[in-house]
Model the fold of this input.
Amino acid sequence: MLTSLHVEGTSLLHRIPVKPKLAALMVFGLGLYLVDQPLLLSAALVLTGLLYLSTGIRLSEGLRRLKPVLFTIAFLASVNLLLLSPIEALVTTLRLVAILFLAAAVTASTAIAEFMAAVTDLARPLERLGLMKAADLGLALGLVLRFVPEIAERYAALKEAHAARGIPVKLSRMLGPLIISTLKDADRIAEAIDARGIRGQ
Amino acid sequence: MTTRDIVLSALFTAIIIVLGFLPPVPIPLLPVPITAQSMGVMLAGCIIGAKRGALAYALLVVLVAVGLPVLSGGRGGLNVLMGPTGGYVFGWIIGAFVTGLVAEKLVREGQSATKQMTGFFIASIDGGIGVVYLCGMPWLSVVAGTPFDKVVLGSLAFIPGDLVKAAIATLAARAVIVGYPLLPARV
Done:
């Protein structure tokens, strides 16, 4: 149901640790806004496109993943074409697609476990501010992934229950029962977590 | 944060992800179909309150960032956050917080149904529409280079759909506060 967007492989990108990759993505993403030469941006686009493919993703799958965002960019490009000069429209479009490819390449070449370790590290400053404990983040994300399939099943059961009673299935009717029945489990789950001393309190 | 707060937020994030699996509903006369997921900001704020609602959305954004396809239509990964609509995604966190803040201020258990529903509707519009657009539109304009006034004009097409969402979120939030109240009160 929730398959990671990570692609197994041993390419150069796979071997670079996650933090330098994220830093490079940020620097590259911001740096491209200083460039407004179509030729240079085209080169950047080809380079990041090749990087994306170097992760070992198949061309069709690679494009399928980016389709919604590419569609948005294409729409904005046509709007920009009407409002701005053709050169400006070209420059912003090339820039966006180049950043898009690099971001997708980082996502495809990084395993979730690596990402999670980085996210927990990056959450340490929040811990110092007293906002939340970094370790709680892992616990919370684990809970989310654990309960998605269960809630999806609950939704399907609710839908059947409505249909069986001849009530038309409508989102506005399903939300209340779905949310109440799910959140009612919270106390039980929280007790179970505390009973096991998982948060170390 | 108590363990219960963390669990409530995590369960809500899971609900938001499941809502993303549902096919978009086309509404007659409206240009853009409604996705159940984008109602989540309003639902989270109105049902579990500001702090927990914001946490639920922060968790969602982390899951997007680490490369899980948790957004409607199977979207996910860093490209969504870095793309032209990234501002809306980050805006969801603040939007859920503001929705919760307003709802906590306006809605109490034991108020009349009309009062509660009005409160939830106002909260949903403030946080789920106002704040989200305030974060998303400047980002879109800067990233895509489209002039800001034109972005605002284009966004108007989404407002009717968003109002329908606010109405559905209001009904759901009212059902939950009657059946299993969780919204903290704020004086």
Observations:
- The helical segments of chain B are 3-21, 40-48, 50-65, 78-82, 86-106, 113-144, 148-155, 159-179.
- Residues 113-144 of chain B form the longest helix (32 residues).
